[in-house]
Amino acid sequence: MAPYQSPKLTVQDIAGMVQGHQVHRDVYTSEKVYRLEMRNLFTNTWVFVGHESQTPKKGDYYTTQIGDQPVIQVRHSDGEVKVLNNRCPHKGTKIAIDREGNTGKFFRCPYHAWSFKTDGCLLAIPLKKGYEDTGLHQTENVKGIKPVGAVYNHRGFIFARLAEEGIGFEEFFGDSLSSIDNMVDRSPEGRLEVAGPPLRYMHKCNWKMLVENQTDTCHPMVAHESSAGTAVKIWDELGNPEPRPPAMQIIAPFMSPYEFFEDMGIRTWPNGHGHTGVNMSIHSDYSAIPGYFEAMTQAYGEDRAKEILDENRHNTIYFPSIMVKGPIQQLRNFIPLGPNKTLVESYIYRLVGAPDELLSRTAMYNRMINAPTSIVGHDDLEMYERAQEGLMSNGLEWVNLQRLFEGNEDFSSEAVENGTTERQMRNQFDAWSRFMTSTMEGHAEAAE
Amino acid sequence: MSAPSKDQLIDFIYEEARMLDEGRFSEWLDLWLPDGHYWMPLDYKQTDPHLVTSLLYEDMFMLKLRVERLNGARTFSQKPKSRCHHVIQRPFVDEMDEAEGTFVTNTSMHYVETRLDEQFMLALTATHSLKLVDGALRLANKRVDLLNSDAAFGNIQLLP
Q: What is the pLDDT of residues A371-387, one digit of tens each?
């Protein structure tokens, strides 16, 4: 944290850390920056909470975090999904501690039995006469469990903005929602359902390294040579048997040459969103599953079915902290637990109305690539943790993001570029800098 | 070997653990029948390996890939290499079908894995399905249930 010794980070400090082609290492290592991210970035933006199928029935709840903030996603008695701060307004006790459950018609704090409706409103306090004439009714605490600032359900995916005021959901995500739409459209019924619990993988590195890596198309053939390259070698030694083993379909494409990834293309959208795989991707060449195209044609007509399935986007970043793989029906949630600690939860979804073989392949992808036991994941985590340690070096304080940098980049409109550009990483930092500082004192002056 | 004794089944489990601890992975691969699977569920008491995620559900191609990768020159997460250590309780022999030549054991273990300055321990129950083929016991399937399978882990790089 050497150059930023001020007791409180200013707008100028944050702006100074992002210089287009490079960022200061403090964005990954500083505790102060992390605190400010939680207070500003993860408060002012729309952050993924969960999928509605995780709480299908009234009273169903699921607990998670938005940044460092504990929250509950719950299905209220009116059928809507609510997101509440997981904190009793009395003493702060977490209202729900298990990862999921059903609370019936109300939540009851296990400490002093204050109870609340599933939208958070206070229902009852035991021995209430003890609060007569105390002024409790004038406090914020008496209102109940506080909901987050705003909630939006986009085709089953629940997002929340912690701040009560700020950018609207559709303005924030804009056309990037097309990736979620394509994932959902791949269900003949236009509906997804969560399939089991997520993989939970702990990373001793900054969350942004993971987010950046999702559109880093120059690392697979290097970092993953030991898994993807060895897979190709073993398959060769076996005489290239067909049908190819699942590992060959799923892991081997990581060894594709640079030209392949260049041709994949990268698209960026405003506010830090973007995706790899504009023209095709490593997911384009999976074997067809009997009955699926027929079900899609029946649901959408042949032309529309083809249009949906011809889209083979690779990784879509919904800034700040999730990645969606449409063709795989996977969502990875990068939950920042500290400047150098990130929990990655990798979820998979069933395409309702599609053959089971698709879900089977999706589950296989999840465990082969993103499990703590994955030979692919091992090398990714190794790189992140080496970087987290290496960045402590004072010999050089800047991290380079200059590949295919054009200078004075404008991220305010959509762009499609060569698939090996680091523009999406720069796009993320542009949004990072703006949403870090938009509610900070001195923001207006700094913008001038 | 005609029908294996209970002791011989138990010895097999001990010997398998020792192979893993001593890094004799190629020898370990040779224990397996070609259509075997190494399964490590993600969920407590998980029944389905296919339609929900597991930590591992690996066929022989994947296991061979896993083992060959460990010896690769550019296997960065194995520079330096991990080491592992199993402490196993005496296995229960749950099934002994001598006519079919199939056997099932249930073994509690503590598994320790280390690399650089890090070391972690997993408590687990391993279920081995064994088969007598041409007079030798072979691994037909292996299921490893971690006591804390739903916890968040860092890298688990070797084989519990």
A: 999 999 999 999 999 99
Show the domain range for A392: 181-435
Cβ neighbours around B60 below 10 Å, total: 16
Task: Say which residues have a Cβ less than 8 Å from residue A298's Cβ, sequence separation at least 6.
Answer: A188
d(Cα A11, Cα A16) in Å, to the nearest integer?
A: 8
Question: In angstroms, how far is the first alpha carbon of chain A from the final one?
Answer: 27
* CATH assignment of the domain containing B46: 3.10.450.50
Asked if A375 lies within 8 A of B65 by C-beta distance, the reply is: yes
Contact call for A226 and B62, based on CB within 8 A: no
Per-residue model confidence (pLDDT) at position A46: 98
Nearest-by-CA chain A residue for B152: A200
Say whether A246 and B59 touch across the interface (CB within 8 A): yes
The minimum CA-CA distance between B59 and chain A, rounded to whole Å, is: 9
- CA pair distance A344, A89, nearest whole angstrom: 29
Q: What's the predicted TM-score (pTM) here?
A: 0.96
Q: Which residue of A has its CA nearest to B56?
A: A367
- Same domain for A187 and A150: no
Strands (E), chain B: 32-41, 54-58, 83-88, 92-97, 102-115, 118-133, 136-146
Chain A neighbors of B66, CB-CB under 8 A: 375
Mutate to test the interface with A, among B40, B76, B78, B111 (most CBs of A within 10 A): B76
Q: Establish if A163 belongs to a structural domain.
A: no
ipTM of the complex: 0.97
Statement to judge: residues A352 and A409 lie in one domain? yes
Whole-angstrom CA distances from B107 to A38, A423, B129 are 45, 52, 12
Report the domain count for chain B.
1
For A156-190, the pLDDT digits (tens) are 999 999 999 999 999 999 999 999 999 999 999 99
Contact (CB, 8 A) for B122 and B84: no
Put simply, whether B148 touches A (Cβ < 8 Å) is no
What 3-state class would DSSP assign to B58?
strand
State whether residue B59 sits within 8 Å of chain A by CB: yes
A379 and B77 within 8 Å at the Cβ level: the answer is: yes
- The answer to whether residues A209 and A300 belong to one domain is yes
Closest CB to A382 among B54, B55, B77: B77
Count how many Cα atoms sit within 13 Å of the Cα of residue A246 in the half-sphere of its side chain.
Answer: 19
